[in-house]
């Protein structure tokens, strides 16, 4: 089973927020979730990207592939450099 770390949309119309989740790569965007890792709130001022760093690094070590968007967010928050330095 190929696992991806990606965004799952939630919220109402024109007011989105996203859950950062680990899912089977074959499932649809809002399909079954293996693990919830955090959230991303693009319309909130302040801290928009909040994830459990230990869970994210654990999934990356297990071979989960982040989407391009998630990888950029992890690099921006500094989690990606902590993962690659281990």
Q: What does it look like?
A:
This protein has helices at residues 53-61, 68-77, 79-84; strands at 3-12, 15-24, 35-40, 49-51, 65-66. With 86 residues, the protein is an alpha+beta fold. The chain has one domain (3-84): Ribosomal protein S16 (S16 Ribosomal Protein, Chain: A, 2-Layer Sandwich), CATH 3.30.1320. A five-stranded mixed beta sheet has the order 4-3-2-1-5. The longest helix has 10 residues, at 68-77. The protein is flat, with a radius of gyration of 13 Å. It starts with a strand and ends with a helix. The model has no long low-confidence stretch (mean pLDDT 92).
Structural class from helices and strands? alpha+beta
The string of secondary-structure elements, in order, is EEEEHEHH
Shape call: flat
Number of strands: 5
Oligomer: single chain
Question: Would you give the CATH topology?
Answer: S16 Ribosomal Protein, Chain: A
CATH architecture descriptor name:
2-Layer Sandwich
Largest sheet, strands/sense/barrel: 5 strands, mixed
- The CATH class is Alpha Beta
Distance between the termini: 25 Å
The largest sheet has its strands arranged as 4-3-2-1-5
Q: How big a fraction of the residues is strand? A: 35-45%
How many domains, as an integer? 1
Mean pLDDT: 92
Percent of residues in helices comes to 25-40%
Number of helices: 3
The rounded Rg comes to: 13 Å
Low-confidence stretches: none
Q: Give the full name of the CATH homologous superfamily.
A: Ribosomal protein S16
């Amino acid at each position: 089973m190929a696992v991806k770390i990606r965004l799952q949309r939630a919220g109402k119309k024109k007011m989105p927020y996203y859950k950062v989740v680990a899912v089977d790569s074959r499932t649809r965007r809002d399909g079954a979730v293996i693990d919830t890792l955090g959230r991303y709130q693009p319309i909130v001022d302040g801290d928009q990207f909040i994830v459990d760093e230990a869970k994210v690094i654990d999934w990356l070590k297990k071979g989960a592939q982040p989407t391009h968007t998630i990888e950029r967010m992890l690099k921006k928050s500094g989690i990606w450099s902590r993962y690659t330095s281990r």
